């Protein structure tokens, strides 16, 4: 297993409330591998302190959920790893309001005591159990903005996951590979969260899309059940917008994630049936043309009509394009560009050295024979 790298793609198995079973996910693993995902984030494991401020022992070791039981989960993790993928556990702790506990010290003058030390040990042991007994490679800690940083660090040092993903204030940060943090000199620049992406796609505010700060160390979502900085969870993105959302996230910086229900839909609507094809095509482009978490994105154009950006040197993305914009910003096919993916309101161009050389040779041959160089286009 490669762990998390700058080329990783996460597949998020279930949103809160979705009913897929561990067996459903296991049955689609080959399709997931073929699509290009490298890591699976398995359904969220939720635990909460009792009214007495204690962990619900031994219940928290049973892991019974709507998705299946403990043995089914172990079988799924083993099947994921057998295919060379990494298995990541989502872990969330719900805290009673105004509760000064192991996760919130120091708060309201609360000082760590013997009970706090015991709670810390019990929780660290539980995370270690997820790693060693269930077999998870990594941990995704959900909704951590209220948690004490020293406590979280102690938990991660004890559990020693191969990779860590931490959610806080609507941004999901990857801690499993070396990365460059976003510039600290732009405190007023809006972060590109999935909530912002939803608003951009619904209002077609392409200038806002261009202005938002992209982070190489963040997981990027089309949909998320993670609360933002205001504690709000965005409504699910309509499928007609989800396509454009994936055109953006799968071609831009950060570590993109794909929802299992989008890649393996149960709905038979035309939009739901088309979306998996779009995702697979975009993932193939991301892989073949070397798009990574820290690829260089250069915005070429942003207006009421469209957003146009180059990603690296071999991918050009148009979102919201109309006929005028396509004519103005479409790259020259004689330089090796061709359409890699297209649909309503988007076009993704790709450039290959081999195609460029072929077109140049064709043009030279036509010129030598006395034909205009523009005839090379007709030989495609």
Describe this structure in words.
This protein has 380 residues and is of the alpha/beta class. It has a single domain, classed as TIM Barrel, CATH 3.20.20. The chain has twelve helices and 13 strands. The strands form two sheets. An eight-stranded mixed beta sheet has the order 6-5-4-3-2-1-8-7.
Count, helices: 12
What is the tally of beta strands?
A: 13
Calculate the mean pLDDT score and round it.
80
Shape: elongated
Low-confidence segments, given as residue ranges, are 105-109, 176-185
Number of domains: 1
Strand order of the largest sheet: 6-5-4-3-2-1-8-7
Rg, rounded, reads 23 Å
CATH class: Alpha Beta
For the report, how would you describe the main beta sheet? Answer: 8 strands, mixed
- SS class: alpha/beta
What is the topology?
Elements: E1 10-12, H1 22-27, H2 29-35, E2 39-48, H3 70-82, E3 86-94, H4 114-134, E4 138-141, H5 149-159, E5 163-168, E6 171-174, H6 194-203, H7 206-211, E7 219-220, H8 239-249, E8 255-259, H9 260-263, H10 270-288, E9 297-302, E10 307-311, E11 315-319, H11 323-329, E12 337-343, E13 346-351, H12 353-368
Parallel strand pairs: 1-2, 1-8, 2-3, 3-4, 4-5, 7-8
Antiparallel strand pairs: 5-6, 9-10, 10-11, 11-13, 12-13
Give a short overview.
The relative contact order is 0.10. This protein has an eight-stranded mixed β-sheet with strand order 6-5-4-3-2-1-8-7. It has a five-stranded antiparallel β-sheet with strand order 9-10-11-13-12. The protein is α/β, with parallel strands linked by helices and 380 residues long.
């Amino acid at each position: 297993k490669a762990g998390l790298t700058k080329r990783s793609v996460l597949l998020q198995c279930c949103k809160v409330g979705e009913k897929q079973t561990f067996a459903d996910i296991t049955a689609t693993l080959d399709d997931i591998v073929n699509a290009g995902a490298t890591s699976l984030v398995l359904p969220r494991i939720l635990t909460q302190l009792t009214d007495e401020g204690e962990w619900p022992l031994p219940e928290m070791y049973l892991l019974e959920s709507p998705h299946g039981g403990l043995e089914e989960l172990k079988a799924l993790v083993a099947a994921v790893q057998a295919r060379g993928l990494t298995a990541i556990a989502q872990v969330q702790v719900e805290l009673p309001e105004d509760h000064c506990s192991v996760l919130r010290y120091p708060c309201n003058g609360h000082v760590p005591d013997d009970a706090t030390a015991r709670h810390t040990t019990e929780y660290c042991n539980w995370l270690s159990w997820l790693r060693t007994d269930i077999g998870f490679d990594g941990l995704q800690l959900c909704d951590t903005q209220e948690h004490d940083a020293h406590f979280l660090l102690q938990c991660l040092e004890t559990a020693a996951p191969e990779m860590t993903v931490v959610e806080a204030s609507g941004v999901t940060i990857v801690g499993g590979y070396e990365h460059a943090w976003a510039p600290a000199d732009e405190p007023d620049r809006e972060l590109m969260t999935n909530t912002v992406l939803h608003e951009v796609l619904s209002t077609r505010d392409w200038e806002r899309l261009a202005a938002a700060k992209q982070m190489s160390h963040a997981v990027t979502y089309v949909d998320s059940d993670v609360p933002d900085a205001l504690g709000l969870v965005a409504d699910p993105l309509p499928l007609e917008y989800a396509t454009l959302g994936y055109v953006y996230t799968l071609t831009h910086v950060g570590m993109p994630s794909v929802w299992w229900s989008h890649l393996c839909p149960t709905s038979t609507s035309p939009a739901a049936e088309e979306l998996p094809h779009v995702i697979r095509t975009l993932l193939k482009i991301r892989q073949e043309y070397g798009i990574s978490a820290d690829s260089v994105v250069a915005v070429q154009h942003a207006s009421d009509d469209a957003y146009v950006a180059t990603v690296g040197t071999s991918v050009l993305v148009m979102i919201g394009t109309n006929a005028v914009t396509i004519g103005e910003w479409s790259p020259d096919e004689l330089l090796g560009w061709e359409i890699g993916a297209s649909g309503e309101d988007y076009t993704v161009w790709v450039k290959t050295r081999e195609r460029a050389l072929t077109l140049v040779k064709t043009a030279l041959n036509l010129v030598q024979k006395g034909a205009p160089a523009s005839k090379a286009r007709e030989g495609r």
